[in-house]
Structures are given as C-alpha cells and as structure tokens.
Amino acid sequence: MAVLPSKSELQEAYARVSPHVHKTPVLTSRLLNEISGAQLYFKGENFQRMGAFKMRGAINAILNLTDDQRKNGVVTHSSGNFGQAVALAAQSLGVTAYIVMPENAPSVKKKAVASYNGQITECESTIEAREANAKSIEQQTGASFLHPSNDMDVILGNATAGVELLEAHPNLDIIITPVGGGGLLAGVALAAHYHGSGCVTMAGEPMQVDDAYRSLQTGTIQYNEKTTTIADGLRTHLGDINFPIIQQLVDSIIRVEEDEILAAMKLIWERLKIVVEPSSAVPFAAILKQPATFKDKKVGIIISGGNVDLAHLPF
Amino acid sequence: MAVLPSKSELQEAYARVSPHVHKTPVLTSRLLNEISGAQLYFKGENFQRMGAFKMRGAINAILNLTDDQRKNGVVTHSSGNFGQAVALAAQSLGVTAYIVMPENAPSVKKKAVASYNGQITECESTIEAREANAKSIEQQTGASFLHPSNDMDVILGNATAGVELLEAHPNLDIIITPVGGGGLLAGVALAAHYHGSGCVTMAGEPMQVDDAYRSLQTGTIQYNEKTTTIADGLRTHLGDINFPIIQQLVDSIIRVEEDEILAAMKLIWERLKIVVEPSSAVPFAAILKQPATFKDKKVGIIISGGNVDLAHLPF
How far is Cα B69 from Cα B143, in angstroms, rounded to an integer? Predict the structure, then answer.
C-alpha cells in the first residue's frame, strides 16, 4: 500500500494556496434536494479564478518550486482548463508559462491562455506531439513540467477545494466529484480522509470513458479506446501517483450515460442558475441515477468548472 | 410633488420580507471591472426564490393583507415571473393564488406556476382578456388583485433588494436597475434615497421599448407601440404609483440596442458564470455604452432574474 501524503502536508498546501484562490461559495437548492432525496451542497469551483478548480493545483505546484526553478518558468500541454490555470497562476506569481496546445484547440481557449500571458506553442493534436513539444521546451528553457493530474502538488492543491467545503459543512456523509485524470478525485479523497467525520468519497464517471471505474475493478490503470463523451474534461485516464490514493480512499465510482449527464447539467443551470461545464454535472447525474445510495445523506458535490462555449451549448 | 413612502415604511417592509426571501449574494469580477472601468457589484436576484426579485414584492404584498383578505386568496395576471412569484409567495404563506395566464404562455412558465400550486386560468393573450379574467375571479372569490409593478407594497418589497445591497456595500455611488413596469426601479430608488450615502439611482432600458425614458423626458407616462425587445421582462410601461417616485428619485435612464443587450448578457454568463435573463443584462449594457458616467465609480447592479428557457437561448 502506497504511503499517503500526511495531514500536515495537506494543511500546509491549504495555507499556501488559500491567499491565491477564491474561497468559492457553496450553493443549495430545496428543489434539487427534493428531486434527489438528499441534502446537496454544491461547491462552486466554476466561480474559481479562471473558472475551474484547476487553478488550485496549478498555484500549489508553482509555489512549491524553488526560486531557481521559478526563474526558468513552467511548461504544460493542455487543450483545456489546465493550460489556462497554469498560465494565470504563473502570471500571478511572476513566472513564465509555456503552454503547448493542439492546433485544433478552440480559439476561445487559446485566447484565454494568451490573455493570461501564456506563451503558446501549437502542435499536432496527438498526445505524442504534445508530449514531444513540451519535452523540447523543457530542455531548451529549463522550465519545470507540470502534469494536470498526476502530480502530488497538483493533487494537494486540488484537495483544498474539499478542505474548504468540509470547513463550511463538517458533517458531510459523502463527497462526490467527477473523475477524469484523477487529480481532483484523489485530492478531495485526501481532504475527506483527514478533515471529514466518517465522510466517504465517491465519483461520477461517464460510461463512455469509464477507465477509472475499470481501474478500480481490476486493480491496474485502464485506458479508454474512445473519448466520445460530452464531458470533455473527463476523457483522460488515471496516473501512477493518483491511482494508489484513489484505490485506498475512494469508496466507489458510479457510471452515467450521456443523456443522464445532459439532464443533470440542465437541472443545474435551470435551478441553481449557474453556468457549469458538462463534466461538472456528472456527479449530480450519478446521484440521480442511484438515489438509494444518497437518500437522506448530506452530500457535497464538487462543481469542477464553468468554462463552456456559449455558441455551442448542448441544450 | 407626490409624497414618498417614509424611511420607516421601507424599514418595516425590510423586516417583514427578510424572513421569507433569500439574502442573495453580491458578485464581483476583476475582468468585468477592467472592461467597464468601474467597480461593479452585481446583486444576484437570479438566486432569489423562484429565480427573480419579484418574489420580494409578492411576499410583501401578501403579508400586508388582513387575515380576512388572505382567506379569499390573491389574483394576478402574468405571462412571466410575477405569476410565479405570487404563486410561490402565496403557497409559502398558506394563501390561494389565482393566476391568469395567456393561453400562448410558454408551457415551462405554466408548469412553474402549477408546481407552486397556483390556480391557473388560461385566456386570450390580449391585455383586455387578461384584465377581464382577473376582474371576474376577483368578483367571484373575493381575492385581492396584485399588480406586478404599480402597487406600493410591491414597490416596497422590491426595494429590499436595494437595502440588502447597500447594507453589504454602503458606499455605492450609483445603483442601476433595468426598467420595465417600474416597480423595481422605484423600489431601489427609495432604498438608495434612504439607505445610500449620496447614491444615485439610474436605469437601463431597451431602445425598442423606451417608454420610461420618454416618460421622464415628457413628464407624463408614455407607452410602447412595439414590444419587440429580447428583454421580455421590460415590455411593459410605468404606472401612476411608481412614476412619481421615479420622477423624483431617478437621475437618468440610458437606452441600449438589442445587440448591446446580447453582448452584455454573454459577458455576464461567460465571466460571472451565472444564468441571467436578457432583462438582467440591460443595466450592464448601459454601463458599457456610456462608460464615462461610471468611470472609477462604485456601481451596484440589480441582476433581476434568471428564468430563461435553455432550449431557446439567444447565443
């Protein structure tokens, strides 16, 4: 069994990250409680800086670099929120950020990275091209590579969303997150482990990309053959740093179909009046799918982010 | 000059209404401050019960009825938020609500009223048919008629949104609201008058339905020939109870074009991550249109509501 990071490591991350991120609000809705049969506490990371929880991990990872490392900058490859998070976190801390983006990434995402002064390198959209380009920048500049989910500092940074939620609502029975690369799930599981009072961690995952579910079942990291889910933040797979944490601390993963994700997303928009990404609706979809598990429980839900293209909404 | 309701009447309304409504959050955004050149404080009445500020006026009006009046119920005609507000407020207070709705009202609005146990009467979509049906119900049941905007109790109830905003941010230089029927604008102007510190009240209005602007210019209540604006909550006109308050207390009304409303709405959705009605974007559109007026000022903006049909978004 792998050694978990300690409670004091988590608390140090919390103290380190908090001055640089928003303490996001926790939303409730009588109607969504009635519909689900549970007491739901939505942690609104869509209101986080740059619109997603990933700001937390990026901030923590950069703060943990030495002064010399910071001088050389940071590099990552991303088609989504982590590129924006690294760019904004680096800008806030006076560090240069090199962001490798696939040439077919939405222009709105490239513009966001550029608006945070991220240095963009475009490449082919294959994972090989992305990794090769990042590696090349790392070697040329001495920049530190940051992985979006399989990095202990990123995991501990993400965990602070769970710590905040449990500070506000210490008696949660369950916390449920979406799972894609595993960095949020592992972090929140650590938060529940150290700061919860018998609080169980669960995840929702799209059936179309159920690699994490299969990884837990088989005990080895599994991959996805297709990545066709609407929940575009969840198409990736677990890594060797977050998987052992997930194995030890996560109770179960509930898989949901695409139409269930869409229906849950619509309910969140209509009833909570907030803009959330499809990925953020996956845990709520899981609750609606398996209500007996959550009945009369106090359930925290991490709303992972709110960066959507309004011109291409799925409704 | 008409006599304004007193400060103590406003404070009584605040004490009366507060236990029955949400204290809605005030949102800020560094980016929207940069774009506008002002310090903006968005009062999120989209998070209010039933999704709009109109809950406040409906609650105050029903609470001000005598016990005998309450036994006979309340009646209104509405194709929009006020019908829902009266239905939910009445349900919360154990009062019967009769809601006259045009037969072509969106089914989503009829369902919402029905879900709050409102007794729906459908009628032709003319104003004459709506008024005749409401009158008939009033005579048959003894129910008290509630007007959505031209009623002093409704105005004082709406004013509580402004009081809450000024309690949280006492040094606002300006508060700006949308103006349709005038009930929100008159109420918030009273709040700024009694609770602000030199706080000026302004409004944004669609150019397509600029009756309130013309009413202020001419000194008499004006009407709209067309009601073609996307801001469907603002198609109505002022009334003889709210107009004198607006005349005395409102500094000016800024008119905006349809594309300006849409651009402002999109910025609010994208950057604040909240779901708001087109009407709610009109004040922010006014600020973007006339930035010199607001430069470096602390500006409160009432986000009036968030009830939109996600299947028919204008983006």
Answer: 7
Reply yes or no on whether A79 is catalytic: yes
Q: Do B274 and A276 touch (CB under 8 A)?
A: no
Tell whether A145 lies on the interface with B, counting CB pairs under 8 A.
Answer: no
**Is A197 contained in some domain?**
yes
Mean of the per-residue pLDDT values of chain B? 96
Asked if residue B260 and residue B166 are part of one domain, the reply reads yes
CATH number, domain of B119, equals: 3.40.50.1100
**pLDDT tens digits, residue range B219-250?**
999 999 988 899 999 999 999 999 999 999 99
In a shared domain, residues A140 and A182: no
Are B269 and A275 a contacting pair at CB < 8 A?
yes
Range of the domain at A268: 7-48+151-312
- Is B2 domain-assigned? no
**Contact indicator for B290, B254 with CB cutoff of 8 Å:** yes
**Partner A contacted by B58 (CB < 8 A):** no
The enclosing H or E element of A13 equals helix A7-17
Q: How many domains are there within chain B?
A: 2
- Work out the minimum CA distance from A306 to partner chain B, whole angstroms: 6
Give A85-114 pLDDT, tens digit per residue: 999 999 999 999 999 999 988 888 899 999
**Closest by alpha carbon to B166, among B53, B16, B306, B302?**
B302
Q: Is A27 helix (H, G, I), strand (E, B) or coil?
A: strand
Q: Does B47 touch chain A (CB under 8 A)?
A: yes
State whether the Cα torsion B142-B143-B148-B151 is positive or negative: positive
Residues 6+ apart with CB under 8 A from B81: B50, B51, B52, B54, B233, B305, B307
B223 and B299 inside one domain: yes
Q: Do A310 and B315 touch (CB under 8 A)?
A: yes
User: Is this prediction's pTM over 0.80?
Assistant: yes
Domain boundary among A145, A165, A196: A145
Q: Any chain B CB within 8 A of the CB of A34? A: no
A281 and A304 co-located in one domain: yes
